[in-house]
Amino acid sequence: MNLVEKILAHHAGVATVKPGDVVVAKVDFAMVHDARALNALKQIQKLGTNGLPFASRTALVIDHFSPPPHPEAANTHVAMRRFAEEHGAVLFDVGDGICHQVLPEGGHLTCGDIVVGTDTHSTTYGAFNALGTGVEGTDIAAVLTTGKLWFRVPESIRIELKGELQPGVWAKDVTLAMLGRLGAEGANYRSLEYVGSGVAAMAIDDRMTLSNHAAELGAKAALLEADEKTLAWLKAHGAREPRPVKADADAQYAQRIEIDAAALAPQVARAHHIDDVVSVTEVASQRIDVALIGTCTNGRLDDIRQAAAILKGRRLAKGVRMIVTPASRDIYIAALREGLVETLTAAGASVEAAGCGTCVNITGHFIAADRQVVISSANRNFKGRLGNPSSEIWIASAATVAASALLGRVADPREVEGGRWRNAA
Amino acid sequence: MSLPNISAACHVVGDDINTDVHCSSKYMPGRDTAYVAQHAFEQVAPNFVSEFKFGDVIVAGRNFGINSSREQAVHVMRLLGVSAVVAPSFGRQFFRNAINNGLPLVECDTSGIEDKDRVEIDFAAGVLTVPERKIRRALPTLPPAIQTLLAAGGLIAFLQQHPDWNVGAA
Known about the structure:
Chain A is an alpha/beta fold and 425 residues long. Chain A has helices spanning 3-12, 37-47, 71-87, 99-105, 137-146, 171-182, 197-200, 204-212, 228-236, 295-298, 301-311, 329-337, 340-347, 398-407; strands at residues 22-26, 29-33, 58-61, 90-92, 114-117, 131-134, 148-152, 156-162, 191-195, 221-223, 255-260, 267-269, 277-279, 290-293, 321-324, 350-351, 373-376, 392-395.
């Protein structure tokens, strides 16, 4: 069996499973964020809240409407705090950070787990050799009352990254290349397994991007095997005892893909379609007005370090504005200690409190102007996502976003000073 | 346990319908399901709601319900009386939401089916027919556990009867 099959079989208490089977499996941890909490709490009421033994293994995360832009969101936040208090659930409040960052940082998941969350990017937990997948309020109600959920066993795609990414090229570029190749939803219903020397060489931050961004491919999950880096990271964050899972030598895959990681250039998704992907060099004359770094996809410490390495001692191009939103409070503190916040602020960027930030206009705190071109390290760029269908959103790595902010046009980070920074750890 | 047959008019929408945008209040803060139901799909099919009759079917292109797929979209469709959605493929989360809320999904090639055609779905026989177009297509069999959840009217209703998750006993 492959990774997702092994985890599902183990949690369903059966010897083997195959794609297409539907199993009822035990869940290890659940997450509900504030954009879905109202619906989830409503569904939970239908099944009754007399004793919710799973509540202590459920996190309520206030990240999307952070801080709340309207009374509905503020009232939802109050209901979440009350529920957490009454039932002993874990609460992450305004400013603590994005669900997919604070769950692993808080030690709430480990290798071999099944973790469900009310968010498509719950695939992120796959970076830790766990089955992380998105669900909705009804699913959460089932998990909270029974500790179990039904799953359809997905087909899997094995993606091997051969060689290592060049300095200045990141996991974001791998996923964008995959989107260009398979198309948005090109892996719909399927689980991805990323393997190879290119994955082994990645730091945990970048591996999380790889698993997270698989959501844009439509993937149900995106799993990596665990190695020394994974185990050390989990231990440092107080996770439970890991149960690492490896794919069998004869594991079956619906598709096998090889990527020459060493030959990959930085990639850019052009406006409106996440799978309209080109190499950065093909669009280097494209003007940009606004640069955004953050989100569950690329708002981690290594992303902020990439931006600071490029912008240290320099200024944003004339007329360009930039907002940086750390993915969590812990990342914010680390960025402060390393002087990254000072570097970016001095360069002309604004650094905002941790949260989902400028990913999507549901808070009203960043809306693009007509004909403005935004380059963002986020994950989705459909027309109007930043509150204005007359604006454009281009998607790239944090390094490419920062290099573009420096030059006022889409820029290859490998061609600017500091753009080849990489995490030596 | 089989789902009841359907014979109803269909309402055709295109590929890659994002139900967050066209059938939820994700971008309309504070609006409830009843409000969204009055405006569902109006940007992609302007007369959708005024022409839709309780029990009708939605026929769509590929990837119906892509992206984050609010469960509210299915609540809206249930409120409108959508009896099934037919499409060659669905967004993954939408698929879950539909099963969890007892809305049958039919995975099937929809080419050649025109707006307002009468669509007949026989779940037991696994056949979709559109008599006036002479279309007859075989349907994949849904796994028994999913049929059980659908027949119960969704996951909440199922768990109210079977809190032990005995999907074989229903």
